[in-house]
Design a protein that fits this description.
By secondary structure, the protein is of the alpha+beta class. The protein has a single domain, classed as 2-Layer Sandwich (Pantoate--beta-alanine Ligase, Chain: A,domain 2).
């Protein structure tokens, strides 16, 4: 048996390559986590806007049903302050085949031109 006079010492620890791979995994993971958190925050804002717009549409439909807002065939427009923002609504009133029922479509948007409405609600009410 041949013995080696210079035995290799066994060092514990990580090699440079192992450390670089670990840093790569951590950096990719943190990047994805930050992106998911950002998307979640953005989604929460959209959900908030959608809920507020739906409340406004429901309020306008209720005002028509309670005869607070007068209705006639055509379009009625206005704005409402809610959630620290001005919301623009448009109500389109149309006759239905049943002369006792009127169709009311309420559209709520962040902009006056209603190019990208946040929500739309269709309701039917008794004609008066």
């Amino acid at each position: 048996m041949i013995s080696h006079p210079h035995k290799l010492k066994h060092h514990s620890g990580f090699t440079l390559l192992e450390v670089l791979v670990a840093l790569l995994i951590v950096s990719v993971s943190l990047g994805l986590l930050i992106r998911v958190a950002g998307d979640s925050i953005h989604g929460t804002g959209n959900l908030r806007d959608s809920i507020i717009a739906q409340w406004i549409a429901e309020n306008k439909a209720s005002e028509i049903q309670l005869k607070i807002l007068p209705i006639s065939a055509g379009t009625l427009q206005g704005s409402t302050e809610m959630g620290k923002r001005t919301w623009y609504w448009r109500i389109a009133v149309a006759k239905t085949p049943d002369s006792y029922v009127t169709k009311v479509a309420v559209t709520v948007s962040k902009t006056r031109d209603h190019k990208s409405p946040v929500t739309q609600l269709v309701a039917f009410t008794l004609a008066y």
